[in-house]
Write a structure and sequence with these properties.
By secondary structure, the protein is α/β, with parallel strands linked by helices. It folds into two domains: 123 residues, no CATH class; 285 residues, 3-Layer(aba) Sandwich (Rossmann fold). The strands form two sheets. The protein has a seven-stranded mixed β-sheet, with helices on both faces. It has a three-stranded mixed β-sheet with strand order 1-2-3. Strand 4, helix 11 and strand 5 form a beta-alpha-beta unit. The termini are far apart.
Length: 425
């Protein structure tokens, strides 16, 4: 089943049906500020007309060629962008004020030219108009639990609708492109096996996994003969992971704990953490890498899978409240390769190997997005309204575009203790 979007004539009705309590900043555009909206109108029009896009604002005839940007309500669209920048751009999509015949293609073009969208003199004033990250999203022990709850505890049934049967919510590793849907489970297992091989996980080894997900990596490690301790802050994930592990007859080899990484105990032969560092937050990266170091037994190995972005982009993003941090991953921040290297070295760890494969994440996200779109009716049946569905459609396309434009990458890294630094402090 495909996600049917109302015709342009129905947009005002769609906005009226938005739940203002659930979506207060989406239900109505910000109060008019002629100056801000006028500046946004000039900047956006000038930027998009120089890009390979087909743009239409209101009743004007379309101009250009490429993926479409069809703005049904230009006044609301420019008011949102004028008031809240890229957050407003995303909220305008959630409100149904604009559409595209190729959302991922449109966002890929915009991402690839993100540094050209705002003139250089205005970019220098960025700090004066962007929103700062809310203090409430800080990943303290309490804040981290709340941030994880907002995303990962939405509904196990929701994630099952668009993930494959392995319930893996991280980049797969494919052997060929374009990948078929039936190849996704095998590609997810290929990703997991590479990480387990990096960490030398096998019979008799004790593995610590930081970030359980729904348990597939723990299952695969236990099937190799390893003992596994895996920790998560998501009660929903813990519940389902335990059920899956018990059903596989491996409950005697796997402990699934509801525990913060800062409260870990013991030493382990291997540590694996898959796309969990993005939820840690810049302020707590030293604590995260210290926890990895402290958990590692002599001669042990750490395998990480991490999304990365350019260092300058990361520095800007770390100070900015973004659409993703507001609606999808509160408190999250994608690190740079340089930040991972600096913080791992600061904790007495060294990077032994490092492999990037961003194209594989773009393909993974494409398959997730296609399935999510087809499952719109089932998503609605779970109680998620049209605004939520547009939000997740935008989120998945936005992330896919980041990898297609090479703004984002995903890496598998092997870390070991840096013996040159001597004993741990």
């Amino acid at each position: 089943m495909t996600l049917s979007l109302p015709r342009p004539a129905d947009r005002s009705l769609e906005r009226c049906s938005i739940d203002a309590q659930a979506w207060p900043d989406v239900a109505r555009p910000p109060a008019a500020h002629f100056g801000h909206a006028a500046v946004a109108r000039r900047l956006v029009r000038r930027a998009v007309t120089a890009l390979p896009l087909r743009c239409r604002f209101g009743t004007e005839p379309p101009q250009g060629s490429g993926p479409s940007l069809t703005v049904h309500d230009p006044a609301a669209f420019f008011r949102r962008i004028g008031a809240h920048g890229l957050i407003g751009f995303g909220e305008s999509y959630m409100a149904g004020e604009w559409d595209s015949d190729d959302l991922t293609g449109l966002l890929t073009v915009l991402t690839a030219h993100v540094d050209d969208l705002v003139p250089a003199p205005l970019r220098r004033l960025r700090g004066a108009w962007v929103q700062r990250r809310p203090e409430a999203q800080l990943n303290s022990r309490t804040g981290a639990r709340q941030n994880v709850h907002r995303h990962y505890d939405l509904s196990n049934e929701l994630f099952a609708l668009f993930l494959d049967e392995t319930l893996s919510y991280s980049s797969a590793v494919f052997t060929a492109f374009p990948a078929r849907r039936e190849s996704l489970p095998a590609a997810q297992h290929r990703k997991i096996d590479r990480l387990l091989d990096l960490a030398c996980v096998g019979p008799g080894k004790h593995l610590l996994e930081i970030g359980t997900g729904w348990g597939e990596l723990a299952l695969r490690a236990a099937a190799r003969g390893a003992r596994v301790t895996t920790v998560t802050l998501s009660a929903e994930q813990q519940h389902l992971a335990r059920r899956r592990i018990a059903a596989a007859g491996l409950a005697d080899r796997v402990d699934v704990e509801l525990r913060d990484y800062r409260d870990l105990e013991g030493r382990y032969d291997a540590v694996v953490s898959v796309e969990m560092i993005e939820a840690v937050g810049r302020d707590f990266w030293p604590a995260y890498f210290a926890a990895l170091r402290d958990a590692l037994a002599p001669g042990g190995r750490i395998a990480l899978q991490a999304i990365t972005m350019g260092h300058e982009q990361m520095l800007h993003t770390s100070r900015t409240h973004t659409w993703i941090s507001k609606y999808v991953f509160p408190g999250g921040l994608v690190p740079s390769r340089e930040a991972i290297e600096a913080h791992s070295a600061g904790a007495g760890l060294q990077i032994v190997s490092d492999q990037g494969y961003g194209d594989h994440y773009a393909q993974t996200l494409c398959l997730w997005r296609e399935r999510f779109t087809e499952q719109a009716g089932a998503v609605a049946a779970l109680g998620f309204d049209a605004t939520f569905r547009r939000m997740w459609e935008f989120y998945l396309a936005y992330c896919e575009a980041g990898f297609r434009a090479r703004y984002l990458d995903v890496r598998q890294l092997l870390l070991t203790g840096d013996v040159s630094l001597g004993a741990r402090p």
